[in-house]
Design goal:
Shape: globular
Distance between the termini: 35 Å
CATH architecture: 3-Layer(aba) Sandwich
Bound molecules: 1-O-pyrophosphono-5-O-phosphono-alpha-D-ribofuranose, uracil
Structural class: alpha/beta
Number of domains: 1
Order of helices and strands: EHHEEEHEEEEEHEHEEEH
CATH topology: Rossmann fold
Length: 207
């Protein structure tokens, strides 16, 4: 299922990120803040366990998360979302999948994968700002499902193309996708229109 996070404060931040005039520092800052917002809807169904909490005035019913959480940013651009999610989920472990798009075929090529030991007992949140063709996110979820078999997997993207949503939900109908906005289309180079350009380059100032 696809969940679009339609919140005014999220939209304001995304607009700043889209703006061609926004520099790398401001782009990263808005991405971190927007990622914090996205943590709430993306974790809404997490199970909690009750516990007793001693307050200065008595005993309250408190809660802790039942399961571990693993954040899996897709390198490079997914790294820009980690600080926002980690600030809301301080106990989360972090795994990394390195993928780059072949510029001609738009196929996602794996170059790195390192996951935490206890990933099988955790709820995994895959992070990547852009869902364009969805080749990268589909491949990341393929790898996680095949090799690590976690309790659950969900995906958080900032901007998605309709083509990417269609491809991803066909490949992984059981994986929920949380997205800030769905844009118009892909252009002939596989970039999202209007989008925000190349997320990795804007985060890391590489172009
Ligand atoms: C970008 C982006 C996604 C991917 C999306 O990464 O961060 O991972 O493209 O496109 P897709 O849905 O068509 O696969 P890129 O390959 O440019 O690598 P980078 O993050 O290192 O810049
Ligand atoms: N990757 C990006 O960073 N931006 C796009 O628009 C498409 C893929």
């Amino acid at each position: 299922m696809v969940h679009v996070i339609d919140h005014p404060l999220a939209k304001v931040r995304l607009s700043r990120m889209r703006n061609i005039e926004t520099d790398s520092r401001d782009f990263r800052l808005n991405l971190v803040e927007l990622s914090q917002f996205m943590t709430y809807p993306a974790t809404k169904d997490f199970e909690t366990v009750e516990m007793k909490v001693k307050t200065p005035c008595g005993i309250a019913t408190g809660y802790k998360l039942k399961d571990n959480v693993t954040l899996v940013p897709i390198l490079r651009a997914g790294l820009g979302m980690v600080d926002g999610f980690k600030s809301m989920l301080p106990g989360a472990a972090i795994g990394f999948i390195g993928l780059y798009r072949n510029e001609q075929t738009l196929e996602a090529i794996e170059y790195y994968c390192k996951m935490p030991e206890n990933i099988a007992n955790s709820n995994v949140i895959v992070l990547d700002p852009m869902l364009a063709t969805a080749n990268s996110t589909i491949k990341a979820v393929n790898i996680i499902k095949a090799k690590y078999k976690p309790k659950s997997i969900r995906v958080v993207n900032i901007i998605a193309a309709p083509e990417g949503i269609k491809a991803f939900t066909k490949a992984h109908p059981d994986v929920d996708v949380f997205v800030s906005q769905i844009d118009e289309k892909l252009n002939e180079h596989g970039y999202i229109v209007p989008g925000l350009g190349d997320a990795g380059d804007r985060i890391f100032g590489t172009k």
